[in-house]
Amino acid sequence: MKYIFKISVLLFIGLSFVVSSCKKEEVLIDGCTDITAMNYQDLATNNNGSCIFAYGIAQGQWDIETACESLSISIPFFLDTLVPLNDLFPNSIEIMGVGEGVVSLDINGSTILADIANDGAVTIQDDQKISLDTGDFGILDVGITGSGNIETSTNGDLILYLTIVIPATTTNVPSCEITFSK
Questions:
Q1: Distance, first Cα to last Cα, the chain
Q2: E strand or H helix at 54
Q3: CATH 2.40.160 fits 54-181, yes or no
Q4: Domain coordinates of the chain in residue numbers?
Q5: C-alpha–C-alpha distance, residues 125 and 99, integer Å
Q6: Considering the entire predicted model, what is its pTM?
């Protein structure tokens, strides 16, 4: 009985050692494993280098296409004029990084700051202004707000809302959509 117990213990230890040394093969799922990337994949277990970072791709020279309503300025009994806002924006914009998740856009000499989230969402910061040369009315300071998204490394969109106040006039509040492409 003593020998059976010793043999059983030795067999158990040997079998435990053999079983514990067996390695389960891990299944690798390729994808982006960085949670700060726009295309993070929570099921990915192997980073394949496909990560896209919004802050990095936002920077650089972007061509823009504007679709803006015209600004209508009216002074009763004196002047009615339309200012075509599409003509006031440049054909391209340089976007530069200024800090963690913050970029600046230069629009006709006015610097606009915007926040960029990891998922590519872009939000114009509060209290931003641009200067627009309206011709008859000269240069106007225009409040600007807006948001948009960086879609890929080569395109995105940004919808701007302009606030224009001209004393003693009536003005419309035009909207302006800008499409970015590299």
A1: 83
A2: helix 54-58
A3: yes
A4: 2-47, 54-181
A5: 14
A6: 0.71
